[in-house]
Amino acid sequence: MRHSPTKVIPWVVAVLLTGAVVATAPAEQRQGSPVAQVLGDRQLRLMAPAAPGGGWDQTAREMQSSLQDSVGRTEVYNVTGAGGTIGLSQFVRYQGDPAQLLVTGLIMVGAVKANDSPVSLDDTTPLIRLTTDAEVIAVPKDSPIRSLQDLTARVQGDLRSVSIAGGSAGGAEHILAGLLAQAVGADPAQLSYVAHSGGGELLSTALSGRATIAISGVSELEPQITSGQMRALAVSSAQRAPTLPDVPTLKERGLDVELDNWRGIVAPKGISAEQERALEQALLEMTRSPKWRETLAEEGWGDATLGGPEFETFLRAEQDRVSDVLGKIGLG
Q1: Residue/partner pairs of 2-7 with CB below 8 Å, 24 or more apart
Q2: What does R_g of the chain's alpha carbons equal in angstroms?
Q3: 124 φ, ψ to 5°?
Q4: All residues at 6 or more sequence positions from 277 whose CB lies less than 8 Å from its CB, including other chains
């Protein structure tokens, strides 16, 4: 993940022994903040429900930086496993606590279905959708697969021989892999998909050549692609990714497949309407801040800000859509 140059600021950042990062800001700078009365003297805690290095982790840590002025003390911590559903199962225990937030997104929606999770996003309070991130299909630099056409030929010839490194089972990468197989006339049920709980683990597999191809968010693989360690074959978005302008879309290469991974924030169920409004307002203000706008440009994330009832409606529609897709391609 890229960061802007270090600035001299009055906040203190401490790394806890647990690996969590806490950021603090002077109390006088937080007065008048939309969440000041809601949080009181407590710190806001942001759960990234995956290992460090992936999109959820990046989102949480960029939020921490962008919220310093308005929120003050924040803590980011990771809970890994099962496409975020392990973190979700822990998060729902914070019922009624407005100091707890969870990073979520398309991956978790799919994992809830694929893992038959006993808890779902229906057990949370949706606050805001933040970003979209295109998926990229890439191979190690020494791979004999030079183009999407080469990959298509391999998939059509023997799908089982094409091992695919991606995120969690049922997540965005798994869904995209199934859609790709379906688009070229192969049986998605024959996928050789290797799931990973975080971006760091996936990157290790991708660079080692232990998988034929890797599918991940553009922001997660862009540094390796730009440096020449990996070769990008295509991106899954409708338009080319701003940070990878030379990489074609799947549709440009003749495959009728389009998929964007979105990320957002939820709070525990049971918080009051006043607390929900305060948290949502703080997050909306964060999305308008220069620091957050800079993050979007640096990471190549799309601005997908959507809050209030509109986000709740979107989330319900996504749950229905993903359930339908997973059923059709044999992933759920």
Answers
A1: 2/223, 2/298, 2/299, 4/294, 4/298
A2: 20
A3: -130, 175
A4: none
> What does the CA dihedral 248, 254, 255, 261 come to, rounded to 10 degrees?
30
Phi, psi of 183 (to 5 degrees): -65, -25
A 10 A CB-CB count for 309 gives 8
**What backbone torsions phi and psi does residue 191 show, to the nearest 5 degrees?**
-60, 140
Q: Specify the residue for token string 């700078």.
A: 29
Give 313 or 13, the one with higher predicted confidence: 313
Tokens 């998926």, located at residue = 135
CA distances 226 to 27, 52, 158, Å, are 41, 21, 30
Question: What are the tokens at 226?
Answer: 């730009």
* Residue with tokens 């390796």, as numbered in its chain: 224
pLDDT digits (tens, 9 = 90+) for 164-203: 999 888 889 999 999 999 899 998 888 999 988 766 788 8
Q: Which two tokens stand for residue 125?
A: 């309070």
Note the pLDDT tens digit of each residue in 73-95.
Answer: 789 999 998 889 999 999 999 99
CB 257 within 8 A of CB 131: no
Distance CA 146, CA 275 (A): 52
Q: Which tokens sit at 130?
A: 């933040």
Closest alpha carbon to 168 in 49, 61, 328: 49
